[in-house]
Design a protein that fits this description.
This protein is mainly alpha-helical and 414 residues long. Helix content is 68%, strand content 1%. It is globular and about 65 Å long. The mean pLDDT is 90.
């Protein structure tokens, strides 16, 4: 019996989801049999994506020369980032290839190759359904962890974040049973966001609902103008953040809107710790930086005897902001390559597409492009698999030229 590529792809995503599910349920610490067994699911997912990406590499011919060049540069530089963090130390190997934020995070763009074939969304939708079912099952364990605001770990949100993509595509496009599953999963997403105290989840939803309201506008010119302002406005903000400074932008915004800032010190500390060359090329997949803030926090809690609450080591191997994580690991070179591909896909999706499905995928990419300035560090997790699937689908001109009826017949959605 042979396993089709689409089924293998579904198994790969489901194994990734199962890894996340077992990770937040059992919370394995150290190197033990339990952690090895759970991590093997992650590695199977990675190997599946790499294998399928290699087998379908000819699909890249569907893209333009510029798109292929940027993509190959991104893959090559991502490989170099991983190699720069390679060592024969057992601990380093486990960290580099057993942590979704380290070496494996730069393998995720391989998924873009699979996204070029729009029919690969069929196994993806089945995998998302699997994630939602698992999260509803996890309700049985919530009270075991004394669920209340601040008690659940962030990983509980990882399998529910795809709800944002489903909301953008349109819940009514799916069958009744799938719709009911989405509604229950949405309620659980809100519940988990409260219990994890993750403001970013509510910001994510706010952005998604803003885009939904925008696409509902009947006046096409106004609709396009809004998205155009969002895109060019964000490009300007990105330029100002890394020239004028995030702190100065934050102070300026605070004069009009008061909000609690928890990101300025991350920008200041990272950029102050990197040399000029490191800002360009990064420090590799296992690169670290020194945080004076977390050093003070650790010293304070050690002083009062609360060693368990020292939060973080001042020598940090990861950083919570997506674009800063790219700079730490691969420098501005990695940031520019990612940013260029993401922005190009957003523009093509919304302004050069004939169908709503591709346009909505572009808005999903835009949402993550915006929010990576304050959160969402790259990781080999379902959300970033969906991101690169979306990018691959959008960049293929054939997909953009399809009508809504052709999309419906290929994906069996309304």
């Amino acid at each position: 019996m042979f396993i089709t590529e689409k089924r293998l792809f579904k198994y790969g995503i489901c194994c990734n989801a199962l890894y996340v599910f077992l990770l937040f349920l059992f919370r394995p610490n150290g190197l033990n049999l339990e952690k090895v067994a759970i991590t093997s699911l992650l590695l199977f997912s990675v190997l599946t994506v790499v294998f399928l990406g290699y087998r379908n590499r000819k699909a890249l011919q569907e893209l333009s020369n510029v798109q292929r060049l940027l993509y190959h540069l991104l893959l090559i530089w991502g490989f170099i980032v991983i190699i720069r963090g390679f060592s024969f130390s057992l601990q380093d190997l486990v960290t580099n290839f057993g942590n979704v934020y380290m070496g494996l995070a730069w393998v995720v763009p391989v998924v873009m190759i699979l996204g070029i074939n729009i029919e690969n969304w069929k196994p993806v939708f089945k995998a998302i359904k699997f994630m939602f079912v698992m999260m509803l099952i996890s309700l049985l364990f919530v009270f075991h962890y004394n669920a209340m605001p601040g008690k659940l770990k962030t990983e509980w949100t990882w399998l529910l974040r795809p709800i944002n993509l489903i909301l953008l595509i349109g819940v009514n496009r799916f069958k009744v049973t799938s719709r009911l599953l989405v509604y229950f999963s949405f309620l659980m997403y809100l519940l988990v966001a409260i219990f994890t105290e993750q403001r970013i989840e509510f910001i994510f939803l706010t952005v998604i609902f803003f885009f939904l309201l925008t696409v509902k506008l009947k006046h096409i010119k106004i609709k396009n103008t809004i998205i155009r302002y969002v895109i060019f406005g964000f490009i300007l903000i990105m330029a100002l953040v890394f020239t004028y400074g995030y702190e100065n932008i934050n102070l300026l915004v605070n004069k009009f809107i008061e909000f609690e800032d928890s990101r300025t010190f991350l920008f200041n500390e990272l950029l102050a710790d990197l040399s000029t060359a490191e800002k360009i090329f990064g420090r590799g997949s296992l690169g670290t930086y020194y945080s004076p803030f977390f050093d003070k926090v650790m010293r304070y809690f050690e002083l009062i005897g609360e060693y368990w609450f020292s939060l973080d080591n001042p020598t940090r191997i990861t950083i919570e902001v997506g674009y800063l994580q790219m700079i730490l690991k691969g420098g501005f070179l990695l940031l520019i390559l990612n940013f260029s591909i993401m922005l190009q896909s957003v523009y093509l999706a919304f302004f050069k597409s004939n169908n709503n499905f591709v346009k909505r995928l572009g808005l999903f990419v835009l949402a993550l492009t915006l929010l990576s300035l304050i959160s969402f560090r790259p990781a080999f997790t379902p959300m970033f698999i969906l991101l690169w699937m979306s990018i691959g689908t959008v960049l293929n001109k054939k997909n953009r030229l399809m009508t809504n009826e052709e999309i419906k017949s290929k994906l069996n959605i309304k």
